[in-house]
Write a structure and sequence with these properties.
With 160 residues, the protein is α/β, with parallel strands linked by helices. It has one domain: Rossmann fold, CATH 3.40.50. 51% of the residues lie in helices and 14% in strands.
């Protein structure tokens, strides 16, 4: 079975690439999906496709709705949703994605630095795991998808 993992949240660092490379190195049968990670494209998609808006509210509203088509579809199709909250920006959209995934009953892994624990306590409470590094997310995926825990041998491997 190929697992689909949706990588939501912060777009300013290479955390998605770190997780994808780690999953590939671990030989996991996984497909990753993500939102559009170009800030400009994400912000302007509505007006670029559907026409200009003089009011910034409607400019943003058009883009948010188009982005929601992608985001909702990918979260609905995901086996696991990883939600990353970074240091530099508040990712309100990531919090919404986490809530949407929780409402759908999707397994959620939250990824954020320790200093965000209090601010994200409700999001963390809905998650099945809270990680601080992309490497921890890879270890979680290795365990839940591949059934492998670093440093442990299962009975079948021990018998060989």
């Amino acid at each position: 079975m190929t697992w689909t993992v949706y990588l939501s949240g912060e777009i300013h660092t290479d955390w998605r690439e770190t997780i994808a490379a780690g999953a590939e190195a671990a030989g996991l049968d996984v497909r990753f999906a993500a939102p559009v990670t170009s800030h400009e494209a994400s912000d302007d998609c509505g007006v670029a496709i559907l026409g200009a808006e003089p009011d910034k509210f409607w400019h943003d509203n058009k883009g948010a709705k188009l982005n929601a088509i992608r985001t909702r579809t990918m979260i609905e199709g995901a086996d696991i949703v990883v939600v990353r909250f970074g240091d530099k920006y508040k990712q309100w959209n990531a919090a919404f994605d986490a809530g949407y995934a929780a409402a759908l009953g999707k397994p959620i892994v939250v990824l954020h630095p320790p200093e965000h624990q209090h601010a994200l306590k409700e999001v963390d409470a809905a998650a099945l795991a809270v990680a601080e590094t992309p490497e921890q997310v890879v270890a979680i995926l290795r365990y839940v998808i591949g059934g492998k825990l670093a440093g442990y041998t299962d009975a079948a491997e021990a018998a060989e």
